[in-house]
Amino acid sequence: MLKLLSKFSSCWKIGALSACLFSSPLLAEPSSALMVETGAGAMVRTVIGLLTVLGLIFVCAWIVRRFGLRPGLRRTGLIKWIDAMALTQRERVVIVEVRNTWLVLGVAQGSVRLLHQFPAAPEHKNG
């Protein structure tokens, strides 16, 4: 719990610092802050800003997927995901380890079936 609070407080400090740094030009010139830009220039700036935000979202998603930061795919705990293979768009074969036993599961839309079970391979027990 303390780690979570310390991470939250450090994020809060970074956010407050960045808000101060980026908002200072707006405080220095209040008349330019209230001026509304119109025309093609405003549209181009809006589209560039939107594309930048969408690009950042996709980069963050790629990083999360690339480095396995999703909490559902952790390899700790009782159930460990070993491998998966897509057969069709809606069907896959998945191998999971539960208590040193590998389960081969067939996963389809709305159903999961046990296809086979066997002891875990020795080289994968520690990793």
Automatic annotation (TrEMBL):
Kindly list the GO CC terms recorded for this protein.
bacterial-type flagellum basal body; plasma membrane
Its keywords, alphabetically, are: Bacterial flagellum, Cell membrane, Cell projection, Cilium, Flagellum, Membrane, Signal, Transmembrane, Transmembrane helix
Q: Which family does it belong to?
A: Belongs to the FliO/MopB family.
* Pfam families attached to this UniProt entry: FliO
What protein am I looking at? Flagellar protein
Q: Which residue spans traverse the membrane?
A: 44-64
Q: What is the lineage of its organism?
A: Bacteria, Pseudomonadati, Pseudomonadota, Betaproteobacteria, Burkholderiales
Classify the source by domain of life.
Answer: Bacteria
Give one GO biological process term. bacterial-type flagellum organization
Q: Where in the cell is it found?
A: Cell membrane; Bacterial flagellum basal body
Which coarse location class describes where this protein primarily resides? membrane
Q: Which residues form the signal peptide?
A: 1-28
